[in-house]
Amino acid sequence: MKKWLTVIAVLMLSACSSSDDGKTYYQLPQSSTPAMQAVSQPGTHLLWVEQVAVPDYLAGNGVVYQTSDVQFVIATSNLWASPLDQQLRNTLVSNLSGALPGWVVASQPLGNDQDILNVNVTGFHGRYDGKVIVSGEWLLNHQGQLIKRPFHLELKQQEDGYDAMVKTLAQAWQQEAQSIAGQLTRLN
Known about the structure:
Helix content: 25-40%
Largest sheet: 8 strands, mixed
Radius of gyration: 22 Å
Strand content: 35-45%
Order of helices and strands: HEEHEEHEEEEH
Number of helices: 4
């Protein structure tokens, strides 16, 4: 009888214990300043962020870290909470909305008279020297004119660890959104 009580006690304790699998999930922080809600009126600029594409090595669940000039590690315990391309697109729409007052920026088509932005991200990772890399190119269809610009940002992490790396990546992505917004403003 005592043996059964011990087995039951062990089973109950194991059932109550946490099911922590040692994994940590990351989400890019949204812009701290809420974007103004724009309403489409005649003369309002419309921007559709059609796609943010990432290469296969960034498209998985794991956060990527570059360990040497030629070697990358895809984390198995430090994971993106949702697909990276979706996070990049959502934060880009949010950051551009905040940086372009009077514009309607969306992740859905807005009509016939809209600018269309596509971004190809080739680098979005931490690196062995304490920096993060955000690189790629964007293509804007502005009134039938195609404008293509490369980007490459390297920012130094202020602290060690994945939390600091993700925050610094988000900061670099926000800086690139500001750069895109500046170019869009000059076009109009």
